């Protein structure tokens, strides 16, 4: 992501994925970003704000700060990459892009511990690098979660010894049946309005397979054929956010090969982070002559399921749900994709459902991909604030639209001993359609064990 501008001054950065000096210089240090930044609002440190981090990037680019300075590394990792700053920036700074490029520089030049090297190899390359391996690992994880071994392992202290106690507690319950991109075709109900592909992703296909199933039911009920196109891989968001852009590019190329088709009206995504990544494939592959234009065409078809349903309109009338709900906005839906009103529009189409807005609904919950594993203290602080705001509404259900947020909220509620369901918005619609058919839509059936 280099530019021809001021090449001699990029002494601290090098290589293909160096942050653009022009992009760094777009920041005029106005401070509009400060109130929107979660880490700044917790620490009240200038360096922990978008403006402060960009100043650090500029200092490295101009050779005034060592790339390996501990403060630089600390702040690049402490940032959630929630991109709330982008939504309010009057200068149009692409903060997420330069942050990810800065992280890539750290991965390239900084010495890594054996634990980090193992994590990157096992997580990014082996498991998330191929969905067959990922599903096999999830099948083993499902066996572990349901076996007598789990309570024994928890009591033994081995998880604490290995530093895996928090990670194990955050694990989602793996589904009985995975939703696999195997080429299946699910026909529309009633009058056919088009054909779409469902992006299955990684965690959504194994831990939140029920959300995929609800998505398929809602889409077909509204007149759309759904295809589970084979050959799909992880979207690559975790790789790119964690300073592994080349791995992200490899996955992007595989997804383009799988999903590009003139016979698809849209590519539907129900995970905010995946949707944002797919829409940003053109930026990721801008220097790839073979894929840049193909990435642009694919991205033009990508739609979050909530965005798509509002664009096309609901032809099937939802039934009544006498629930009080509150909506937690996923960062990569609200800030990266600027999808804020569509979820609320859909909730308001459901008879008898009451939406109560929580305070700071767009403030990050602390999940941020794997941030809650890497920065547990900040993640816990933000989660506590989010849960306090959600519970203050008196809602029966917390609604969101991203697996990371749902996982974080569910874990936080379990830790507090609160039995409150967390549902994806498309699940709420699916239950409203069940109600329209006279079938029960039990709230408590959604509470995680």
UniProtKB/TrEMBL annotation:
Domain 4Fe-4S ferredoxin-type: 17-47, 68-99
Protein name as it appears in the record: Glycolate oxidase iron-sulfur subunit
EC category name: oxidoreductase
Highest taxon in the source lineage: Bacteria
Function: Component of a complex that catalyzes the oxidation of glycolate to glyoxylate.
GO MF term list: 4 iron, 4 sulfur cluster binding; glycolate dehydrogenase activity; metal ion binding
Annotated SUPFAM superfamilies: alpha-helical ferredoxin
E.C. number(s) listed in UniProt: 1.1.99.14
């Amino acid at each position: 992501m280099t530019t021809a501008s001021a090449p001699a001054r990029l002494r601290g950065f090098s290589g293909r994925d160096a942050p653009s000096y022009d992009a760094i210089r777009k920041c005029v240090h106005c401070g509009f970003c400060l109130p929107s930044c979660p880490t700044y609002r917790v620490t009240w440190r200038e360096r922990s704000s978008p403006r402060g981090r960009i100043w650090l990037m500029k200092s490295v680019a101009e050779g005034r700060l060592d790339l390996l300075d501990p403060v630089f590394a600390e702040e690049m990792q402490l940032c959630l990459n929630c991109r709330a700053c982008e939504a309010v920036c009057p200068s149009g700074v692409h903060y997420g892009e330069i942050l990810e490029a800065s992280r890539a520089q750290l991965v390239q030049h900084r010495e890594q511990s054996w634990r980090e090297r193992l994590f990157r190899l096992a997580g990014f390359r082996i498991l998330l690098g191929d969905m067959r391996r990922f599903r096999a690992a999830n099948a083993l994880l499902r066996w572990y979660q349901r076996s007598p071994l789990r309570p024994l392992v928890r009591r033994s202290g081995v998880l604490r010894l290995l530093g895996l106690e928090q990670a194990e507690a955050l694990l989602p319950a793996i589904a009985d049946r995975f939703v696999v991109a195997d080429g299946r075709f699910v026909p529309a109900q009633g009058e056919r309005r088009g054909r779409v592909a469902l992006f299955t992703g990684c965690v959504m296909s194994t831990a939140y397979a029920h959300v995929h199933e609800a998505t398929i039911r809602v889409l077909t009920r509204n007149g759309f054929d759904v295809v589970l196109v084979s050959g799909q891989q992880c979207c690559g968001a975790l790789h790119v956010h964690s300073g592994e852009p080349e791995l992200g590019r490899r996955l992007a190329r595989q997804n383009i090969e799988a999903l590009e088709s003139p016979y698809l009206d849209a590519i539907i995504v129900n995970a905010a982070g995946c949707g944002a990544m797919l829409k940003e494939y053109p930026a990721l592959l801008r220097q790839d002559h073979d894929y840049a234009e193909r990435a642009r065409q694919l991205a033009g078809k990508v739609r979050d399921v909530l965005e798509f349903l509002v664009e096309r309109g609901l032809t099937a009338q939802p039934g009544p749900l006498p629930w009080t709900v509150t909506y937690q906005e996923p960062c990569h839906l609200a800030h990266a994709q600027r999808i804020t009103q569509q979820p609320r529009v859909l909730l308001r189409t459901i008879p008898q459902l009451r939406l109560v807005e929580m305070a700071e609904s767009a403030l990050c919950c602390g999940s941020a991909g794997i941030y809650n594993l890497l920065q547990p203290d900040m993640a816990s602080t933000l989660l506590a604030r989010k849960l306090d705001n959600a519970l203050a509404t008196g809602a029966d259900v917390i609604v969101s639209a991203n697996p990371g947020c749902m996982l974080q909220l569910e874990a936080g509620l379990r830790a507090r001993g609160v039995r409150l369901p967390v549902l994806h918005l498309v699940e709420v619609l699916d239950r409203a359609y069940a109600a329209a058919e006279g079938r029960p839509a039990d709230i408590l059936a959604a509470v995680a064990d």
